[in-house]
Amino acid sequence: MRIRKPHKLELEYIQRMMVWMLWRESESLCEGHAVQLGLGAAAITRFCHKLLRMRTTAVEINPTVIVACRAWFHLPENDARLSIINDDAAHWVAQTEQLQSVQVLNVDLYDHDAASPVLDDEEFYANCHGLLDDGGLMTVNLFGRDASFARSAARIAKVFGSDQVWSLAPTKEGNTIVVAARGVQIPGREELERRAANIETLFELPARKWLRLVQPLPLSIISQLGT
Predict the structure, then answer these.
(1) What is the signed CA dihedral for 133, 197, 167, 186, rounded to 10 degrees?
(2) pLDDT of the residue at 218
(3) Taking the chain, what is the end-to-end CA distance rounded to the nearest angstrom?
(4) What kind and span of H or E run contains 141?
(5) Predicted pLDDT at 144
(6) pLDDT for the residue 84
């Protein structure tokens, strides 16, 4: 985080977690409810709340992380658009009263070892799918020495459908961002390029680069889904 620009996204993988913006129409880009599972240093939460001005919820299991973000990382107190919840993400996404209440879901869940995602099974991804409204989008950070992109991507694709899952090439640090959607129609290249230009102009994010990096799931993963 830059002290003088605390709401700007600095890390490359955090920037790529915003790739869902390409899948939303520019006119409604900032509408709806954005949820983060795993607060981290609150970069995504600050961005969605302060710059996108979306209704924003973050779910964090460790109360010390919440206290630290408010003390050191410019995380504001809860208000009409911001809700920071101290809860286990698995428990929170399983609450049925929240079905189809979320338009954007960012999943970045790691323990102190950061060996692999702490929630990475089909039940968890099914609950994430249930949270999303029609046209909703989820991004997931897959990273760690014990993480498996193929295994995780296959689980996500079984829930969302292989035609609704994409990934970006890994960052140099090894983070691979997966995008999953609930019933999204992908526009043509010209429209995607228009959206990317709009994102770059308004939010200083490398959206044109994302277009070069995004790709459908490999056939080796899709071929396993029916087995």
Answers:
(1) 50
(2) 82
(3) 44
(4) strand 132-142
(5) 67
(6) 98
State both tokens at 110: 């790691």
Tokens of 210: 């994302």
Sheet architecture: strand order including 165-168: 82-86, 55-60, 33-37, 102-107, 132-142, 176-181, 165-168, 214-216
As a whole number of angstroms, the distance between CA 88 and CA 194 comes to 38
C-beta of residue 31 within 8 angstroms of C-beta of residue 70: no
pLDDT recorded at residue 4: 56
User: What's the Cα-to-Cα distance from 12 to each of 9, 87, 153, 189, rounded to whole Å?
Assistant: 8, 27, 21, 23
Q: Which two tokens stand for residue 163?
A: 């035609």
CB distance 40 to 108 below 8 Å? yes
Domain-by-domain residue ranges, the chain?
12-222
Distance between CA atoms of 173 and 110, rounded to whole angstroms?
A: 15
> Which pLDDT does position 1 carry in this prediction?
46
Alpha carbon distance 169, 185 (integer Å): 22
b/e map of 43-59 (b: 16 or more CB within 10 Å)? bbbbbbbbebebbbbbb
Residues in the chain where the model's pLDDT stays below 70: 1-7, 112, 114-115, 144, 146, 226-227
Spelled out in words, what is the top-level CATH class assigned to the domain 12-222?
A: alpha beta
CB-based contact 195:21 (threshold 8 Å): yes
Contact assessment for residue 33 and residue 54, using Cβ atoms and an 8 Å cutoff: yes
